[in-house]
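Fig. S4 source data, part A: sequence.
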Amino acid sequence: DLSSNKIRKYPIKSSSKLLALTILNLSRNKMVDLHGIYVPKNIEILDLSMNKIRRIYIQTDVNLNSSSSLKSKFLHNLSGLSLNVNKLKNVGNINIFANLIELDLSGNQINQINDKLKDLKKLTHLNLASNNLTKFSPMIINSLKKLEKLSLRKNKMDSLTIDSRSLLNLDGIQ
């Protein structure tokens, strides 16, 4: 647990010696840039909330220019990602985390969601509350078949169109 410090730079340069690490909490620090950070391949939960992060660009032990199936193979254990209360304006290459189950992007400055989010087929919880979203594509919800909880509260949307068949698994929508 490295939370509530004054860490400005991501502390892991290489993950080859951190094979047993499954939970990494770096919340409540002063990190701004995640450019080129290394995520140990056995990480299951990564908490980067309450920093000042502006973009998502995460590197693994493999070349990120390789195919997305290869990328997700090396991040296959990451099931929870918290990036809430940062300064994100978009979701960047979020689709490299193909096995995410829970994703919290609340409290950022995101004004649109790109189609890469629909690649997160295992997602059950998605929190996009308190952003600057003016619209949310129904195609994203349609593609997230396992989605149980969706929070879009406190955004700037004046309407939302959702096909009722997409709501079959949703336990709650805000």
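Fig. S4 source data, part B ends here. The helical segments are 68-74, 138-143.
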